[in-house]
Write a structure and sequence with these properties.
Blueprint lengths: L2 E5 L2 E3 L4 E3 L1 E5 L2 E6 L4 H4 L5 E4 L4 E4 L1 E6 L4 E2 L2 E2 L4 H10 L2 E9 L6 H12 L6 E7 L5 H12 L4 E5 L10 H14 L2 E5 L3 H13 L6 H6 L2 H18 L3 E3 L5 H12 L4 E5 L1 H5 L2 H4 L21 H10 L4 E2 L32 H10 L5 H15 L17 E11 L18 E11 L2 E4 L24
Parallel strand pairs: 1-6, 2-7, 8-11, 11-12, 12-13, 13-14, 14-15, 15-16, 16-17
Antiparallel strand pairs: 1-4, 2-3, 4-5, 7-18, 9-10, 18-19, 19-20
Helix pairs in contact: 4-5, 5-8, 8-9
Length: 466
C-alpha cells in the first residue's frame, strides 16, 4: 500500500480552513494533522507532495454531465474517456452522468447501455442518474430496483415534447414512487408545450438566428414550470431537485418553497453565472456556440443566482456539460435555431471559474468547496466518501495554486470540442496536482492518469434529507 504525505498546504473544506498535512494510505485519507505536530512529524511516507503556498481541497463532484449523449440527430462530442480526462484536468474527480431510457424501452436497457459506454474508459470515478422518459407501470417498478443498485436519482423533463417530455400526471406518478423508495426527482423545469408554440411562431416570422433560442424560452416559462414542479412534489410528498436554474423568477420560486421548509433544492451552472444573452447575440452564427437549455439569460439575472448561492437557496453548481462541436454539429441549425444541438462544454472549467468567483468576492473559499464538492456529494448520496477531506474518505485531492494566472481557450483545453465557451477569459487560480483515490492523475500540470482507473460508484439516497 503506497503512502503519500501532502505537506505545507492550506486545507480548505466546506466547514473549515486549516494549515494541515494530509496522509494518504492506498486509496483513502488516513489522517490530517498540524504540520508541526508529533503525529505529522512521525509520518514516513513513500512520497511527499509539497503544497506550500497552495490550497489542498477535495476533488470536485460534477453531478450533471452528458457524455456520448444522443440529441438532435447527433451526440455530444466528449466520450467517457475524453470527458473524464478533461474533468481530471479541471480538478473534478467524480462525475454523475445521465443514463437514458429510450421511449418503449426499459430503464434497465438504458442503464446497461450507459454502463457499457463507461466501463473501462473513465479516468476518474463516475455514477449515474436515470433519465425517465417513458413513465409507465413497468418503469415505475424498475425505479425501486435501480435505487437498490445505487442509482438513486431520476430526471424528468417538462420540456422537449415528443422526446423526453412527461406530462403532469406522469410526473406525479414518478414523484409518488420516489417518495416511497427514497429516490430524488430531478426536474428540467421549462414549459415545453408553450415554448414549442413560440418556436413555431418565431420561425414563421423569419426569426431564425441563435439569439431567438433565448427569446422563445421565456424566463416566465421556466418560473411557471418550477412552480408547478414544486406543487406536484408537495402533492406527492417527494423531494425535488431542479436542474440548471437560470432565471431570477425561477430562483424566487425555489426560495419561497425553501422558506416554507419544503425539501426543494436547486443547481445552477457556470454558464448562467458568467455568460449571458450577449453571447447568444454574437454576430454571424457565433451565437450558436452558446445555445443550451435552459437558455442564457440577460446579465441582470446573475445577481439573483449569486445571492441564492450565498444564502443556500441554490445548493450546487454543476456544469450540464454537453458539448457539440461548432463545425458540423452546432452548424446543423444554420437557418433554424431550433435545430442547433443544445449544450455547452464546461467540465474542465467549473472549479477554476468558481475560484474566480472567490477572487471576485461573490462567494467565500469554503462556499466554493461546498457548492462544487461537498453539497453535490451529499445531495446524491456520495458523502462522506466523496466531497470532503477526512479520515476514511477517498483520497480525491486537489493541490490548487490560487495565484496562477491562466487564459481559458480551446487551444489549451482538453475537452473534445472545437471551441471554448469562455475563450480569452483571464482567471486567477489553477489546478496543479490531482489525486483520484490516491493515484496521481494530474502531476504538476502533466496528465498521468489512465482510462479504466475510474470506477462506478453506487450511491446512497439524498443525504440532505437525513
Amino acid at each position: 500500500m503506497t503512502t503519500t504525505a501532502i505537506r505545507g498546504g492550506l486545507v480548505v473544506t466546506a466547514t473549515e480552513e486549516i494549515l494541515a498535512d494530509v496522509l494518504v494510505e492506498g486509496e483513502r485519507i488516513a489522517a490530517l494533522a498540524a504540520p508541526d505536530s508529533a503525529c505529522a512529524q512521525g509520518w514516513i511516507p513513500d512520497r511527499t507532495l509539497d503544497a506550500t503556498g497552495k490550497y489542498v481541497v477535495p476533488g470536485g463532484v460534477d453531478a450533471h454531465t452528458h457524455f456520448e449523449f444522443p440529441f438532435g440527430g447527433t451526440a455530444s462530442s466528449d466520450t467517457f474517456e475524453t470527458g473524464t480526462r478533461a474533468a481530471a484536468w479541471g480538478g473534478t474527480t467524480t462525475v454523475v452522468d445521465f443514463a437514458v431510457q429510450s421511449r418503449g424501452s426499459s430503464l434497465r436497457e438504458g442503464l446497461d447501455t450507459w454502463h457499457a459506454k463507461a466501463e473501462g474508459t473513465c479516468a476518474v470515478d463516475y455514477a449515474f442518474h436515470m433519465i425517465l422518459s417513458d413513465v409507465r407501470e413497468s418503469s415505475l417498478k424498475e425505479m425501486d430496483l435501480l435505487v437498490g443498485e445505487g442509482v438513486t436519482s431520476f430526471k424528468l423533463f417538462m420540456a422537449y415534447p415528443g422526446v423526453f417530455y412527461s406530462d403532469d400526471g406522469q410526473i406525479l406518478r414518478a414523484m409518488q414512487r420516489a417518495a416511497g423508495n427514497g429516490g430524488l426527482i430531478m426536474m428540467h423545469a421549462e414549459n415545453g408545450i408553450a415554448i414549442d408554440v413560440l418556436v413555431e411562431q418565431a420561425l414563421a416570422a423569419g426569426r431564425t438566428d441563435p439569439r431567438y433560442h433565448g427569446e422563445v424560452r421565456k424566463a416566465l416559462l421556466e418560473a411557471e414550470a418550477t412552480h408547478r414542479a414544486i406543487a406536484l412534489a408537495r402533492v406527492a410528498g417527494s423531494p425535488l431537485y431542479v436542474v440548471h436554474v437560470s432565471a431570477e423568477e425561477a430562483v424566487a420560486e425555489l426560495t419561497r418553497a425553501r422558506d416554507k421548509g419544503l425539501p426543494v433544492f436547486g443547481e445552477t451552472c457556470p454558464q448562467y453565472l458568467f455568460l449571458s444573452t450577449d453571447n447568444l447575440a454574437e454576430p454571424g452564427f457565433e451565437g450558436a456556440k452558446y445555445v443550451c437549455s435552459t437558455p442564457l439569460r440577460p446579465r441582470e439575472h446573475q445577481a439573483a443566482l449569486w445571492r441564492a448561492l450565498r444564502t443556500d437557496d441554490l445548493q450546487v453548481v454543476s456544469t450540464d456539460h454537453c458539448p457539440f462541436c461548432f463545425s458540423g454539429q452546432k452548424e446543423l441549425g444554420r437557418g433554424d435555431f431550433s435545430k442547433i444541438p443544445n449544450g455547452l462544454p464546461g467540465v474542465e472549467n467549473r472549479m477554476d471559474l468558481l475560484h474566480q468567483a472567490v477572487v471576485d468576492g461573490h462567494i467565500s473559499r469554503r462556499r466554493w468547496i461546498d457548492i462544487a464538492c461537498t453539497a453535490p456529494a451529499r445531495m446524491f448520496g456520495l458523502a462522506p466518501r466523496k466531497g470532503t477531506l477526512a479520515p476514511g474518505s477517498d483520497a480525491d485531492i486537489v493541490i490548487y495554486d490560487p495565484h496562477a494566472r491562466q487564459t481559458l481557450s480551446a487551444t489549451t483545453h482538453h475537452m473534445n470540442v472545437d471551441y471554448s465557451a469562455y475563450e480569452g477569459k483571464e482567471i486567477t487560480g489553477r489546478v496543479e496536482t490531482v489525486l483520484s483515490r490516491g493515484e496521481t492523475v494530474i502531476d504538476r500540470r502533466r496528465y498521468t492518469g489512465r482510462a479504466g482507473h475510474g470506477r462506478f460508484v453506487p450511491r446512497a439516497t439524498c443525504q440532505h434529507l437525513a
